[in-house]
From TrEMBL:
Source organism, top-level taxon: Bacteria
Membrane spanning residue stretches: 38-59, 71-90, 96-118, 130-149, 155-179, 191-214, 226-247
Protein name: Bile acid:Na+ symporter, BASS family
Keywords carried by this UniProt record: Membrane, Transmembrane, Transmembrane helix
Coiled-coil boundaries: none
Native source species: Sedimentitalea xiamensis
Amino acid sequence: MIAAFLGQVAHHGRFGLVAGLAAGLALPDAALALRPWLPELIGLLLAVTALRIGPRAAFGSLAEFRGTLRAVAVFQMLLPCLALLLFRLAGHADTAIALIAVLWLAAPSVTGSPNFAILLGQPPAPALRLLVLGTALFPLTALPVFWLLPALGGAAAAFGAAGWLMTVIALSVGAGFLLRRWVLPAPDAETVAALDGIAVILLAVVVVGLMSALGPALAQSPVQVAGWLVLACVLNWGAQALTLLVLKTRPERGPFGVVAGNRNIALFLIALPPEITDPLLIFIGCYQIPMYLTPIVMQRLYRRASAAD
């Protein structure tokens, strides 16, 4: 009975994410109450995802590892440096938009990217590999950005910002893999669907906490929030569409597209001073909207990409 219910939740998962967004805006007290529990909720989500995928699919072959390593270098190091160069050539490197765009590009994948890949009908394992490897290498890939932008706090901030997140990911993914080996070595289709349903519920709860800063900002300055929302949609959905186009001959372009648009920019909240993080908090709240609408808005594009393979 419970497995069947969770399977239905997974089947209608896209609408569950929309419900989470609506709750985050409509229930500010609940959002504030959930915010301190975000690390634990995200860790639980990662454990469920790792249990669902399993270590064999997650690690992949040596060739897949090399491809993931190249993707991390492009996504988290080459693209932000190129964007910063373009902003400087245009004379806008000191603007808040430039700073947020560069930080967004330098960030690793969001922890929910494998789950978004599942909801879009894409293989989740490449997204999980990008998530784990990208976060592990974040202190190194972020170094050029911190060096080029001294106001961010230097190299030490990059290492400090990534340390706790990598610890959470390592413990959560490790727990999920151990459960897969000891408890569910060969889950059937109904069990996999139930795990997907649990992940959808966790994603919906997590987004409520992530929206805690958006409600007050929307009441105080709706025009400013609208501007940040437009930027978030352009960055997120534009990066996904561009990745699908550029990697049209690559079999992993679907999960890579999900990661390209959905970045864990909230990681920088730990390392940056308040004068930088204040506008960043509003952007992060706005950013949840295109992120959680991705399985609905981008579904047709990913379906076409899968059909063309």
